[in-house]
């Protein structure tokens, strides 16, 4: 479906828009920057039923995203008027996935925060970039290559750690596979459940997920414990498994 811009401001900053009308009652996300990372986000969010607005200055990228996202628009979000015209402050979360142009990445983030966007996540290139984004108010900073490298390294070092994610504010979440060593023991006897600073949120057994499981529940080989706690405490506990 092709939609021609009508207002002067949108027509000036936005060449064309493809897609269908978004339902304001649904959770809405906007992804700015349609490189490999941004396009993957649009695809995954859309597959999970989310309302997604895909934005880029490159019309070719936008045309590709039009088959994936709810709406796709050619626009320059490093311009304050564009952000206002697109009403990005109405969105639940805006992801700045601009990768190559760091200046545009930073300026877009700053303008989004100034416009009152509820939550702004940003893709960062390196540590100095992260520091700048933190100072201007980015709600979450992502370094995809670094984060994925850390996750893979943890899994290479210890196959019992199925997943490890930083949640921010020094808190992390880990998915730990129960091995034969802990078979038949209660959840409370697992090393990750012994600390007062860590908490077992759920137990996954096959397709079943048991939230806040009974700590006296007997574990089986292959069960996955979902545990959260301070990153340093959780990391140290995992090293001792």
Automatic annotation (TrEMBL):
A single GO molecular function term of this UniProt record: monoatomic cation transmembrane transporter activity
Domain RCK C-terminal: 159-241
InterPro entries noted in UniProt: NAD(P)-bd_dom_sf (IPR036291), RCK_C (IPR006037), RCK_C_sf (IPR036721), RCK_N (IPR003148), Trk_Ktr_HKT_K-transport (IPR050721)
Protein name: TrkA family potassium uptake protein
PROSITE patterns (UniProt xref): RCK_C, RCK_N
One Pfam family from the record: TrkA_N
GO biological process: potassium ion transport
Residue stretches making up the RCK N-terminal domain: 26-142
């Amino acid at each position: 479906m092709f939609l021609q811009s009508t207002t002067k401001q949108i027509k000036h900053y936005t060449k064309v828009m493809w897609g269908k009308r978004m339902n304001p009652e649904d959770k809405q996300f906007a992804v700015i920057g349609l490189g490999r990372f941004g396009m993957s986000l649009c695809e995954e969010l859309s597959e999970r039923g989310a309302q997604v607005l895909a934005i880029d200055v490159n019309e070719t990228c936008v045309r590709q995203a039009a088959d994936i996202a709810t709406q796709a628009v050619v626009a320059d979000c490093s311009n304050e008027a564009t952000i206002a015209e697109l009403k990005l402050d109405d969105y639940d979360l805006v992801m700045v996935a601009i990768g190559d142009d760091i200046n545009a990445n930073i300026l877009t983030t700053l303008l989004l925060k100034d416009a009152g966007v509820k939550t702004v996540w940003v893709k960062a290139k390196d540590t100095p970039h992260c520091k700048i984004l933190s100072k201007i108010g980015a709600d979450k900073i992502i370094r995809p290559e670094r984060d994925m490298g850390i996750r893979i390294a943890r899994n290479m070092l210890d196959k019992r750690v199925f997943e490890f994610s930083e949640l921010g504010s020094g808190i992390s979440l880990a998915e730990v596979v129960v091995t034969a060593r802990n078979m038949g023991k209660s959840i409370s006897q697992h090393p990750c459940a012994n600390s007062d600073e860590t908490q077992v949120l759920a137990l996954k057994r096959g397709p079943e997920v048991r939230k806040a499981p009974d700590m006296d529940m007997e574990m089986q080989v292959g069960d996955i414990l979902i545990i959260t706690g301070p990153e340093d405490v959780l990391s140290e506990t995992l090293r001792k498994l």
